[in-house]
Design a protein that fits this description.
Elements lengths: L1 E6 L6 E5 L6 E2 L11 H14 L7 E6 L11 E2 L4
Length: 81
């Protein structure tokens, strides 16, 4: 499982997850959109980078961790688009 994250410029912590809403981002990791395959998240990641060029290098597709098939969603670890 994969997710799209926005990381802090200062300390590289995850500050938001792509959630598919109109605002696109949520600070609540439970709202993150999960993708089965990295290639499914790639086009959305590229679109987000295009819309936010100043933050482009901080927007990444990352492997989701601690995700049960029907359970709570966990954090992600770095792995760019």
């Amino acid at each position: 499982m994969y997710c799209i994250t926005l990381r802090s410029r200062i300390d590289a912590r995850i500050t938001a997850w792509y959630d598919g809403s109109e605002s696109r981002w949520s600070t609540d990791h439970k709202r993150q959109n999960l993708f089965d395959k990295k290639r499914d998240a790639g086009p959305i990641c590229r679109e987000l980078r295009k819309r936010c060029p100043r933050n482009a290098k901080f927007i990444n597709v990352e492997a989701a961790q601690n995700v049960a098939p029907d359970g709570p969603r966990g954090d992600c670890r770095p792995n760019s688009c």
